[in-house]
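Translate sequence into structure tokens.
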Amino acid sequence: MTVSEDAKLDILIIGAGLAGISTAIVCASHGHTVTVLEAAKELAEIGAGLQITPNAAKVLQHFDLPQNFWDAGAIPKTLSVHRYSGDVLAQTKHFDADVMKKYGAPFIDMHRVDLQKALHRKAVKLGVKFVMNQRVDTMDFSQPRAKATTKSGECFTVDLVVAADGLWSAASREISPDIPPPQPTGDLAYRIVLTLDQVQQDPELKSWISHPEVHFWIGPGSHVVAYSLRACTMLNIVLLVPDDLPEGVAKQPGSLEEMKKLFEGWDPVLTKFLDKVEHVDKWKLMYREDDLPSWINEKSTLVLVGDACHPMLPYLAQGERKVTASSITHELIMPRSQFSH
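Result follows.
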């Protein structure tokens, strides 16, 4: 439903991640004018896999993304939990059918880039303007309309700023100046993507990638998640281990030898996959110890979405909150009078 002319807003969204673009789609589909600022020069081929659970899949169905987007995913037919040595502790066969029957939407594994680009194409089709290579320097919420100025000096005066600027959100301090910085969880993640080409000489590993399944390994001090991507031509592997990164370092290249040593004695299939890895990064897992007192400023000219307000760790497969960010964008389709005092 499109809002009336007098209720339409000029909206500025900071951040072209999944939360930012999803919010742009919701706002633009209701008739608002939307501009998205992104610090990166382009939407690059970065990122790895993510698991889109049925609650998020329903949002994407509502967005009416094209069939080629869904075809680029992998819907797991089986979910298996292994002891670290490889023994199966629990297994759900017909996982795809069971999920669809129970929730009315699929559980689908997707490459983050495929989702981001599909959302971007949808947003552009709805008239959303993307301004790349622009980092916000200052924001002013003292007037009825909000103002954001970029480091290059470009100024945007709008009815509403939506901050989708991630875990280290600068905009969150406009609402809560004393909020503590994100804290380390004590864990880090090795994130890996392998392609069929990398395992061509091993029929067993090829079969694992070619058949859509989700595998978990539970071990002492660590656990692993693996699943197929891109129509079963890639395998995403995440290794969760104790954090040994220096204080203040969020990401750095990892040592293949160190990584493999951590998983000596684990399932031979898993260690064979790790032998195929050519490079790997280590990511410190961070969280917010304290909740923000509000996600909206007093003048209702700033709202936070995604990691900026409610960062979630990957353990619940609800990380990359992006597509569920629309759950709060009902705020954005209220009459203009409710956004200015």
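Note: The radius of gyration is 21 Å.
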